[in-house]
Design goal:
Elements (H helix, E strand, L loop, with lengths): L3 H10 L73 H7 L13 E8 L2 E6 L11 H12 L7 E9 L11 H18 L4 E5 L1 H8 L9 E4 L3 E6 L2 H6 L3 H19 L1
Parallel strand pairs: 2-4, 4-6
Antiparallel strand pairs: 1-2, 1-3, 5-6
Helix pairs in contact: 4-5
Length: about 260
């Protein structure tokens, strides 16, 4: 037996809109009374068939192209119309490129004490001084000529930069200068000095923020006092004519550390 929903589905599939059962169907919905009323008879209508008018031409009609209607966008409520950005505005909206990070400087410095002077010396090879190194022998000659002990005392381990191979710590030139100056200031608090010798370009840059133009001059460095700028030991050996300039400047400064003794 068919239930009423399935029966209606079958009738809808057969496109049957109105129907009346000949007998009472089980599980069927009650019949509607208006469907049981007798229907009026349909009158006969005569239809006259007339021949169609001849066509103007036997050529088949060509379909006309339908004109395209302009597409109009209707803004929806709550939406904002999109406006094309002007080139100038697009350039202003673009984020400014980040400056390229400055690579950390690379150097090795050794701090020594000779009498009343401190010496910050560039280690060209990055290794500590050895007793028979030509650069160390030249340094001993310079101290002997200055009237200072020619066996300087090595203070601490060499300062090597960068400190870390990896990591996010700032190791740029400014950080290197702060570190070197802080290291020297800590040694000056332990024992002051009359003149700080800065030997080599890295020592000049990171202790006094100076360059090669300051060679043979005495610089006033905040927190460090008087600093004497000198070329590196390797440069003095490669260019011996510079030793005359060192000796001339040394003669004018010897009174400063000799008076302390």
């Amino acid at each position: 037996m068919l239930t009423e929903p399935r029966r209606r589905a079958y009738l809808s599939a057969m496109q049957v809109v109105h129907w009346l059962p000949r007998a009472e169907l089980p599980f069927a919905a009650p019949s509607r009374p208006e469907l049981l009323l007798p229907q009026a008879p349909v009158e006969d209508v005569d239809f006259e068939i007339r021949p169609s008018a001849p066509a103007a031409s036997d050529a088949p009609a060509v379909p006309q192209a339908r004109a395209e209607r302009p597409k109009i966008e209707i803004p929806r409520p709550g939406s904002t119309p999109k406006v094309a950005a002007k080139p100038a505005e697009a350039e202003e909206a673009a984020p400014a490129p980040r400056p390229a990070p400055v690579p950390p400087p690379r150097f090795a410095l050794q701090l020594l004490r000779a009498g009343s002077c401190l010496l910050l010396v560039e280690l060209a090879t990055g290794q500590p001084f050895q007793s028979r190194d030509p650069s160390y022998l030249l340094l001993k000659d310079m101290l002997r000529a200055a009237g200072l002990p020619d066996a300087p005392q090595i203070i601490g381990e060499p300062v090597r930069w960068p400190l870390l191979v990896r990591g996010n710590m700032d190791q740029g030139p400014d950080a290197a200068r702060d570190f070197v100056q802080g290291f020297i200031q800590a040694r000056l608090e332990e024992a002051p000095c009359s003149v700080l010798w800065l030997i080599g370009l890295p020592a000049l840059r990171h202790a006094a923020s100076a360059d090669a133009e300051a060679y043979y001059q005495v610089l006033k460095v905040a927190g460090l006092g008087d600093a004497w700028a000198l070329p590196g030991l390797e440069l003095l050996m490669d260019e011996p004519q510079r030793k005359a300039d060192v000796w001339q400047a040394m003669r004018q400064l010897m009174a400063r550390w000799k008076s302390v003794e």
